[in-house]
Write a structure and sequence with these properties.
CATH topology of one domain: Phosphorylase Kinase, domain 1
CATH architecture of one domain: 2-Layer Sandwich
Number of helices: 4
InterPro entries: Kinase-like_dom_sf, Prot_kinase_dom, Protein_kinase_ATP_BS
Shape: globular
Distance between the termini: 31 Å
Protein name: Protein kinase domain-containing protein
Pfam families: Pkinase
Strand content: 15-25%
Strand order of the largest sheet: 3-4-5-7-6
CATH class of one domain: Alpha Beta
GO molecular function: ATP binding; protein kinase activity
Organism: Acanthocheilonema viteae
Amino acid sequence: MVIFTALPSGISSDEGNRDYEIYQVPSNYVVVDDEQLPFEIKDVVRIRANEKFSKYYDCMDELGEGKFGKVYRCREKATGLELAAKRIKIKRDADREKVEREVAIMTKLRHPRIAQIYDAFATPDNDVVLIMEIVTGGELFDRVVDENYILTELAVVMIVCQLCEAVSYIHSKNIVHLDIKVIPMLSRLCIIG
């Protein structure tokens, strides 16, 4: 794969210097492995209203918190499979409808750069818990602002290419992600904020 990146100057001189660099990416260089998912992707995931999340999953440590709720590490009781449980606060009926639409969309997206949904539950207090593929490695934003983390140009190029693959795939399905920002990017694109 050949990747072009613009130089900060963005100016070509009369000496024929280019205003971009060409990187030849080694074929074995991968920032994110295309590992096999530890579960079979379901054709349909519906929010289960009459079943308790705790009947099927053990909730473990908190992984993070966002605008819409908290994310926990959980383990499926039947299989021991480790997943992420994202609890989304539902304040209005319109919020529930939005989450239901996003779950339906997520069920249709099959791409190695997009976090996959596994299950979903409604809680007694009207919130929704999404069970998803657990994405390790932390948030990209944390890496960018950490002065002790060395983020090479080549690594940035590879990360951006992989995220562009995910966005391109989503667009090919006539879906637009309206909330892309550095913070929810882990090593896969997370569709629900």
